[in-house]
UniProtKB/TrEMBL annotation:
GO molecular function: ATP binding; ATP hydrolysis activity
Similarity field: Belongs to the ABC transporter superfamily.
Source species of the chain: Thermosediminibacter litoriperuensis
Taxonomic superkingdom: Bacteria
Residue intervals of the ABC transporter domain: 3-248
Record-given protein name: ABC-2 type transport system ATP-binding protein
Entry keywords, A to Z: ATP-binding, Nucleotide-binding, Transport
Pfam families documented for this protein: ABC_tran
Length: 332
């Protein structure tokens, strides 16, 4: 097994200053009694709303934090106790933080990391060549990192994370702030690493598109607890029951004459978002009907926002069922 998380909880303790002399202790339960396993070569997404505990979970798995309760094994090691040994076998990319030297070109960081990981000179040269080709870095390899675009920086960031050939790559919001093209490049690279180079990927993202293209498995966290553990395919089948159609009409529509199963999700002047229940009707039919009866400037079809899927998971009573099941197991 690549990763084994057994009944892990993580609490943060904060001290609030109250007046001149008093301090009040506040305990935040970021992760509550979480268990899961990841087989080698899988790609797992950890998703959930803000504050759900995703980053805390990634930090626990990398050994940056130690659990308050429970145990974690990553590649047969305790990530917190064996952190330096584990560092040779795993890697992490945090979208909001950089491991590249800001005022130096990326090539300098690669060479420095080569030294840190004790990679032999010839081998390092070979690996850098491979990564430069894979991530198409040659045109900006000698420019200071501060002068790179966000997309170029993220490609260098992931290349740097791979210099020591890690078995597991942890990514916390790797596509945050990237434009459509840069995001797509990063996603393709991550998918290739997982599918063809056997790198296990653990990813957090707020973007359902990223998650679907990279990962096979998903864990949904909310308020520190697992509310759903599933294959992405199953989650789509069970919970993605709707699509959002965004239409920009030539002028504000009076009567949309909507089919059953279609509701107005949002409206801002001539821009209307419709939610289509896929169990009741077909998206193509809805689009054809609207285009036939109205002057339309633009139409886009999207998946519903992650937050609304999570809300749906709750409304479907899934989490309550799961909790009841777990309690029954514990009692048994
Ligand atoms: N260093 C810290 N000290 C105290 N509380 C923290 C710390 N880091 C996180 N928390 C709290 O723990 C909870 C979980 O935070 P975490 O960052 O793990 O969530 P997240 O799912 O990654 O959220 P986001 O999507 O916003 O990044 C939140 O209530 C957060 O305020």
């Amino acid at each position: 097994m690549c990763i084994e998380v057994n009944r892990v909880s993580k609490q943060y303790t904060l001290w609030k200053i109250k007046g001149w002399t008093r301090r009040e202790r506040q305990v935040i339960e970021a992760v509550k009694d979480v268990s899961f396993r990841v087989e080698p070569g899988r790609a797992l997404a950890l998703i959930g709303p803000n504050g759900a505990g995703k980053s805390t979970m990634i930090k626990l798995l990398c050994g940056i934090l130690s659990p308050t309760q429970g145990s974690i094994r990553v590649l047969e090691m305790d990530p917190f106790k064996d952190r330096s040994r584990l560092a040779y076998r795993i890697s992490s990319v945090f979208g909001q933080r950089s491991q590249l030297w800001y005022h130096l070109p990326p090539i300098d960081t690669f060479q420095l990391l080569g030294r840190i990981y004790d990679i032999d000179r010839v081998e390092l040269k070979k690996r850098m060549k491979e990564l430069i080709e894979l991530f198409d870095l040659s045109s900006f390899l000698y420019q200071p990192v501060r002068k790179l675009s966000l997309g170029q920086r993220m490609r260098c960031e992931i290349a740097a994370a791979l210099i020591h050939k890690p078995k597991i790559l942890f990514l916390d919001e790797p596509t945050i702030g990237l434009d459509v093209v840069a995001r797509s490049t990063v996603i393709d690279i991550l998918r290739d690493l997982n599918r063809h180079r056997n790198v296990t990927i653990i990813l957090t993202s707020h973007d359902t598109g990223d998650i679907e293209r990279i990962c096979e498995d998903v864990i949904v966290l909310n308020e520190g607890k697992i509310v759903l553990e599933s294959k992405i395919r199953e989650m789509r089948k069970n919970f993605f029951h709707s699509k959002i159609i965004e239409i920009e009409f030539a002028e504000q529509p009076n009567d949309l004459n909507l089919l059953p199963g279609v509701r107005v999700f949002d409206q801002n002047g001539p821009v209307v978002k419709l939610e289509v229940d896929l169990k009741t009707c077909d998206v193509n039919e809805v689009v054809s009907r609207i285009v036939a009866c109205n002057a339309v400037r633009d139409i886009t079809i999207q998946d519903p926002p992650l937050e609304s899927i999570i809300q749906h998971i709750y409304l479907s009573g899934y989490s309550a069922e799961r909790e009841a099941g777990q309690n029954a197991q514990i009692d048994g």
